[in-house]
Amino acid sequence: MYELNQIGENSFYIESPAKIGLVRLNDEEVCLIDSGNDKDAGRKVRQILDKNSWRLTAIYNTHSNADHIGGNEYLQKQTGCKIYAPGIECDFTNHPLLEPSFLYGAFPPKELRNKFIMAKGSLAELLTDTVMPEGMSSIELPGHFFDMVGFRSADDVVYLADCLSSVETLNKYQIGFIYDVATYLNTLEKVKQMSASVFVPAHAAVSKDVTELADINIAKVHEIADRITELCEKPISSEKLLQKLFDSYGLVMDFSQYALVGSTVRSYLTWLREEGRLTFCFENNELLWSSVS
User: Fold this and answer.
1) Is 231-291 assigned to CATH 1.20.144?
2) Which of 83, 87, 236, 267 sits between 20 and 30 A of 126, alpha carbons compared?
3) Are 63 and 96 in contact (CB under 8 A)?
């Protein structure tokens, strides 16, 4: 873990729970794509920088989930580097309390105010074309989170952030986090059409071709959608639906999973209703969802 791997003339990644990209800008300067999940990850990145006599100039965050921005605060304090994040992700990066608040839908309990969901705040600026290194570009990959992006380096390595999960991850967690299901599916179709010398998904193996994995992720979305629709054959509350989904997939509920999967299931409900597959009603002051015959 935390080994440096070279995959292009100037492109690298650091093996970690969420892969960290590293792009060499010249003999002395580098930038990162994401920063790992916490201070310890940042410290290990710093050791790699020092070993290679590299100076960190900037961190380009793909999105604001804690496992991608957790090293920001430490590395910024240690190196004075700039941090850039796209769109709404910039606000979440500057104010990490927004993430557990968004997931919970209110001020979050302490069980959600932890480093796995709420990173330490860092001073981020808005990602624009003008702050990108020469030859490097961002790629819009929304759906998993609000304004998530990937990056293409000058030597044609594409860092895909969280739009793909490995088969092992899908089998373990079953219901991966998605903010906007329709947009996420569109992003996966976009990824299938992309070409690159190498693709680096944050939570899957580095590969020259991600078409098959994209199809597997698409199929998983439709499998979950079908299961939700089946569970809504009789009117059911979202809380009861969540319990039945956990039971059917053999998952174990805790506060983090309640927030992450619960938010995702509500996104599925929105999408399925807009697709005409579900409807809702209020009975005895209770919101109930039901499938459309």
Assistant:
1) no
2) 267
3) no
Q: Are strands 137-140 and 149-152 parallel, antiparallel or unpaired?
A: antiparallel
pTM as predicted: 0.97
CATH number of 4-221: 3.60.15.10
Ordered by start, the domain boundaries in the chain are: 4-221, 231-291
By CB neighbour count within 10 A (0-12 exposed, 13-18 middle, 19+ buried), where does 263 fall?
A: middle
What pLDDT, on the 0 to 100 scale, is given for residue 42? Answer: 98
Residue 186 CA to its chain's centroid (Å):
16
Q: Rounded distance, CA 34 to CA 187, Å?
A: 20
pLDDT on residue 293: 81
- What secondary structure, in 3-state letters, does the chain show? CCCEEECCCCEEEECCCCCEEEEECCCCEEEEECCCCCHHHHHHHHHHHHHCCCEEEEEECCCCCHHHHCCHHHHHHHHCCEEEECHHHHHHHHCCCHHHHHHHCCCCCHHHCCCCCCCCCCCCEECCHHHCCCCCEEEECCCCCCCCEEEECCCCEEEEEEEEECHHHHHHHCCCCCCCHHHHHHHHHHHHCCCCCEEEEEECCCECCCHHHHHHHHHHHHHHHHHHHHHCCCCECHHHHHHHHHHHHCCCCCHHHHHHHHHHHHHHHHHHHHCCCEEEEEECCEEEEEECC
- Residues 195, 158 contacting (CB under 8 angstroms): no
